[in-house]
């Protein structure tokens, strides 16, 4: 086997790896436990990643400990350059020939639609607009009293500065996303303020991802390390719906 591109999608709920050849054909695939080093520690993360790689190599019917030519891993818990370097260093210490080139990045957008179904995006947008309106940065024709009460009651705060605690000190996407439910109730009660906040302009094409995001990581490894654009599988996504949204 001349070239092997590896891609790992390591979310907090589980991890997947795919091995592709130079034509983008799948060689091997494996699934395993999550690999967030902030939850299980660096050593355990390395152990799980190496086990995941070994399972994929076995699935591809390659010799044990075959070196992956180029490996890209999108992982939860890799938030800085320092954590990225420390993980790569730990993996190479445990197995120097694990891969020729290794790239690690954070799976930052994973919860955007999957984990919170867009609720975090809407909640974040509303809070952002709320603060801009409160500071007089954008014109607004409605009273903010109802929205202010919804936001303050939900986060149990007395003023807008209390939001800093929830968005910085104890940041929790699930908690912030939950605000959307209360806002939606306001929409159902025909609050003109929330109706306006729930509208924006554009066309949204919804598709369902049929493959593991590890395929995207492997394609990224090929592009970054070898300058190769691997083809995207034709069945990677399935159209679901198209929403036309206007102000």
Number of strands: 7
- Name the poorly predicted regions: 109-116
What is the overall number of helices? 11
CATH architecture descriptor of the largest domain: 2-Layer Sandwich
Give the C-level CATH assignment of the largest domain: Alpha Beta
* Percent of residues in helices: 40-55%
Strand content is 15-25%
Q: What distance separates the N and C termini?
A: 55 Å
Mean pLDDT: 82
Helix-strand pattern:
EEEHHEHEHHHHHHHEHE
What would the CATH topology of the largest domain be?
A: Nucleotidyltransferase, domain 5
Q: What strand order characterises the main sheet?
A: 3-2-1-4-5
Could you say how many structural domains there are in total?
2
Radius of gyration: 22 Å
Largest sheet: 5 strands, mixed
CATH superfamily of the largest domain: ATPase, nucleotide binding domain
Structural class by SSE content: alpha/beta
3D architecture notes:
There is one protein chain. 45% of the residues lie in helices and 21% in strands. By secondary structure, it is an alpha/beta fold. The protein has 2 domains: 5-107 and 213-245, 2-Layer Sandwich (Nucleotidyltransferase, domain 5), CATH 3.30.420; 112-203, 2-Layer Sandwich (Nucleotidyltransferase, domain 5). A hairpin with a 4-residue loop joins strand 1 (5-10) and strand 2. Helix 5 (119-134) crosses helix 9. GO terms for molecular function: N-acetylglucosamine kinase activity. It comes from Paragonimus westermani.
């Amino acid at each position: 086997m001349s070239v092997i591109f590896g891609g790992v999608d390591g979310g907090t709920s589980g991890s997947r790896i795919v091995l592709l050849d130079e034509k983008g054909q799948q060689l091997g695939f494996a699934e395993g436990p999550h690999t967030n080093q902030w939850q299980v520690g660096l050593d355990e993360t390395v152990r799980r990643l190496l086990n995941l790689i070994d399972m994929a190599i076995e699935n591809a019917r390659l010799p044990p400990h075959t070196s992956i030519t180029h490996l890209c891993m999108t992982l939860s818990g890799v938030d800085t350059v320092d954590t990225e370097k420390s993980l790569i260093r730990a993996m190479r210490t445990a197995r120097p020939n694990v891969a020729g080139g290794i790239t690690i990045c954070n799976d930052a957008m994973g919860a955007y639609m999957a984990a919170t179904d867009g609720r975090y995006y809407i909640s974040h947008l509303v809070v952002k607009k709320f603060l801009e309106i409160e500071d007089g940065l954008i014109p607004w024709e409605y009273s903010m009293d109802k929205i202010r009460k919804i936001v303050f009651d939900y986060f149990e705060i007395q003023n807008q500065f209390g939001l800093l605690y929830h968005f910085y000190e104890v940041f929790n996407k699930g908690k912030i996303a939950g605000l959307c439910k209360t806002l939606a109730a306001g929409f159902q009660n025909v609050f003109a303020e929330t109706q306006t906040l729930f509208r924006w302009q554009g066309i949204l094409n919804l598709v369902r991802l049929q493959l593991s995001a590890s395929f995207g990581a492997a394609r990224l490894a090929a592009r970054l390390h070898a300058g190769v654009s691997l083809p995207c599988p034709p069945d990677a996504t399935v159209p679901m719906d198209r929403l036309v949204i206007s102000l």
